[in-house]
Amino acid sequence: MKPRIFSGMQPTGELHIGNYLGALRNWAKIQYDYDPIFCIVDQHAITAPHDPQLLPERCEQVAALYLAAGLDPDHSAVFVQSQVSEHVELAWIFTCTVPFGWLSRMTQFKAKTLQAGGNQDSIGTGLFLYPVLMAADILLYQARFVPVGDDQSQHMELTRNIAQRFNNHYGDTFVVPEAKMPVVGARIMGLDDPTKKMSKSAASPTHSISLLDPPGRVRKVLGRAVTDSQAGVNWEAPGNGVANLLTIFQAFSEWTDERMEAHFAGMRYGDLKKQVAEMVSSKLEPIQLRYAELMDCRDYLRGVLRSSAERVKPVAEETVRAAKQRTGLYFL
Ligand code: AQP
């Protein structure tokens, strides 16, 4: 049997090129080497303010993007988290297992708290517990590998710690998973501020490029991308902004370092930005065409989500049954 992989994304907005290069493209590339399960984690999306009218539509948009980016629904399970209730059931068991201090040290919680104004009275407890639910998502399916971007390193370490802690307390129950990250593109930075990772929820219109952006907008946003005051590309020591543009180009093109250097060393920033824009748009075009087709076939899309949820449910049930028995919860 092939080892299982699990990963997911939040339907919190339009997926951007960071989500694609850090995770989604990798999923499509490696899916046939594994037993793959991919989730749209809507229960994570409600940890932040959201529009309840819009959330189901966003789930279907993300599902369409997963398939448009190359996930094969005949091989990969693609489903919505809230359709499989065992995610939250296991998350509660883990909530009672994980020390408070572990969660207090999560940097993403601190960053998102600051983003929300730093006032703890305006932040849902779900945001604090989010990494526990993420651990449950992964461990529920006994996944061996988790293909994610670099920003998830700390959450992955916590997931491993939770699995080991549970196994030590109650006996071997969970596979301890490993993160799987791409060599290039594991952390794409914001185009308006290359010291911060590109994020769906950032407010600035020049921060990110969505997978659905038309070429004109891609050109405009990249044209305004923050660089530095050097005359052209300093290949040996590029500033953060230029390094990010080079990474985006290299990740999309899959050129070698040697070819990148020969082509870009010394290039003026205006030309660099134009070439990155052309490369990005040429790779997004087929995804956008397929996305539009899929969004016109809602019954098909919903069929994929429904049948995938049915496919993964027995695995989730078996894991939760084992976890409940081990923790001493009552069952007949
Ligand atoms: N900037 C990035 N570079 C590379 N990979 C990234 N990922 C996210 N940002 C980058 C990867 O995308 C997957 C989906 O993550 P998510 O939807 O669960 O949420 P996130 O990591 O919190 O992503 P965002 O875009 O920043 O969303 P918001 O603003 O809603 O929090 C993960 O595999 C992640 O590593």
Description of the molecule:
By secondary structure, this protein is mainly α. It folds into two domains: 208 residues, Rossmann fold, CATH 3.40.50.620; 78 residues, Tyrosyl-Transfer RNA Synthetase, CATH 1.10.240.10. It is built from 13 helices and five strands. The strands form two sheets. Strands 1-2-3 form a three-stranded parallel beta sheet. The chain has a two-stranded parallel ribbon with strand order 4-5. Helix 1 links the parallel strand 1 and strand 2. Helix 3 packs across helix 12 and helix 4 crosses helix 7. The longest helix is centred in the last third of the chain and has 30 residues. The chain is globular, with a radius of gyration of 21 Å. The relative contact order is 0.15. The mean pLDDT is 96. The chain binds adenosine-5'-tetraphosphate. The site of adenosine-5'-tetraphosphate has 20 residues, from helix 1.
Number of domains: 2
CATH architecture of the largest domain: 3-Layer(aba) Sandwich
Q: What is the ordering of alpha helices and beta strands?
A: EHEHHEHHHHEHEHHHHH
Q: Which regions contain 5 or more consecutive residues with pLDDT less than 50?
A: none
Which structural class should the secondary elements be placed in?
mainly alpha
Total E-strand runs: 5
| End-to-end Cα distance | 32 Å
Assess the beta-strand content as a share of residues: 5-15%
CATH C-level of the largest domain: Alpha Beta
The number of helical runs is: 13
Give the strand order of the largest sheet, numbering strands 1, 2, ... along the chain: 1-2-3
- Average residue-wise pLDDT: 96
- Envelope shape: globular
Kindly report the CATH topology of the largest domain.
Rossmann fold
Which kinds of small molecule does this entry bind, naming each only once?
Answer: adenosine-5'-tetraphosphate
